[in-house]
């Protein structure tokens, strides 16, 4: 099977102009077929402030009301997505930027929850493997914004880590997929503030232990859940690490490797 | 050659929720390969007001400074483009929304002018016929936002009428292209306020006469220049007419037909 590298880039990198520039150069240098999934960063929050739209957060998650959906659609699928694509083009990487509505790439449904109304938040139902494959065959790198749709005309704000996992799973029947979660830290750390405490490998038993002993900081848990969901569904390699080390991450020479 | 219908939709239609809804339904019903190019409407202006970004206009054209470029990228390539795509999907039309940066679809250069600095405004250099053809072959309807790029990482605000003309010209070597400029009026009118004065056909001699006698209102001239540029470069049919009459326009039974 052909190799496919899927990279998720975190919001803190997007907020840092120089780091983003360096990352885009590194991503352009990855040989073979590739997909980039980006989060949102602080731009949406700043725009909401400028526009006087109040942001509600529950358990660290943004509640996406109608005005917030409008803002994230503009910022994620418009500003961030198109600027990343233009920068990739400038680096000689022919990229195409998509939301989940484009080509029905990622279908989702509005989340329902017993007690919390998350608003216009989507949980992924299906990745359009045929479309993604066809675009990759055109030698295009695909850049996904974390916006999906419900096939009834509704756009939905969707977690970028989850999108990365779902695309990696979906494509693993057709490609030998490596999934890289890149962000501001060197990997999964025993001490969240010390990059030298990166854990090289995590298997399910060790993950249970780390959770039980409370050694992993809370924000890392959904990322690790996504990482294990991917490795348990046919994705060949899952690595979590520092965006600046992307070339090393793609070679498995840095970051935390997730073991099935 | 295969038929390809290219429709430009004007800003006044985008600003009217019901008209846009009806238009999207009509566009979804067009058989065969199709491309939609949308303008911006008043959303960008309203967002600029909310954000306190002052809009400069010269000769009816927006001067695109850095903040305005950010706004139009968000509104055109993000909010409008993705909502149109999602609405097309809801109508059973598998659409993909692109800016000119995506897949290097439309390369442009920053406009230079002896006396006016238009800012980040792009004049089109090339349409990527291979990419557009490949996407159409995937049975995708393509939805273009009026944003291009310069291959050096710069996004550029570009006139949607011109984009429609350039794409129509570019694709006319591969397809039997019909180009439809749809907007709020019934066609080219002898009296701008009276839809019953629509001119059925305009050839170059009549166009000269209309210009000389000052019978056509100023805003229509660039649209007609684009229309003639298209018909003189291999585009089979060029029609200007009312968005609500799209099915009739595609059959050549309404609007103004441009004759080479």
TrEMBL record, chains A, B:
Residues 3-241 form the Aspartate/glutamate/uridylate kinase domain. Coiled coil: none annotated. The keyword Transferase applies. Its EC number is 2.7.2.8. One of its GO terms (molecular function) is acetylglutamate kinase activity. InterPro entries: AceGlu_kinase-like_sf, AcgluKinase_fam, ArgB, Asp/Glu/Uridylate_kinase. It catalyses: N-acetyl-L-glutamate + ATP = N-acetyl-L-glutamyl 5-phosphate + ADP. Belongs to the acetylglutamate kinase family. ArgB subfamily. This is Acetylglutamate kinase. It comes from Terrimonas rubra. The gene is argB.
């Amino acid at each position: 099977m052909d190799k496919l590298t899927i990279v998720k880039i975190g919001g803190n990198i997007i907020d840092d102009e120089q780091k983003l520039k360096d990352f885009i150069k590194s991503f352009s240098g990855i040989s073979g077929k590739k997909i980039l999934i980006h989060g949102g960063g602080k731009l949406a929050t700043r725009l909401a402030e400028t526009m006087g739209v109040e942001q509600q957060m529950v358990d660290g998650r943004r509640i996406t009301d109608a005005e917030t959906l409008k803002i994230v659609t503009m910022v994620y699928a418009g500003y961030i997505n198109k600027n990343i694509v233009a920068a990739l083009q400038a680096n000689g990487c022919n990229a195409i930027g998509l939301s989940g509505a484009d080509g029905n790439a990622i279908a989702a449904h509005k989340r329902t929850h017993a007690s919390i109304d998350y608003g216009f938040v989507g949980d992924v139902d299906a990745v359009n493997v045929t479309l993604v494959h066809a675009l990759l065959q055109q030698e295009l790198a695909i850049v996904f914004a974390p916006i999906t749709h419900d096939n009834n005309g509704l756009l939905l704000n969707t977690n970028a880590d989850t999108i990365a996992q779902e695309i990696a799973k979906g494509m693993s029947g057709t490609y030998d997929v490596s999934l890289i979660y890149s962000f501001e830290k060197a990997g999964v750390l025993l001490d969240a503030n010390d990059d030298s405490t990166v854990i090289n490998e995590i298997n399910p038993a060790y993950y249970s232990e780390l959770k039980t002993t409370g050694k992993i900081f809370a924000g890392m848990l959904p990322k690790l859940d996504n990482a294990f969901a991917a490795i348990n569904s046919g994705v060949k390699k899952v690595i979590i690490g520092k965006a600046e080390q992307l070339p090393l991450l793609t070679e498995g020479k840095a970051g935390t490797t997730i073991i099935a």
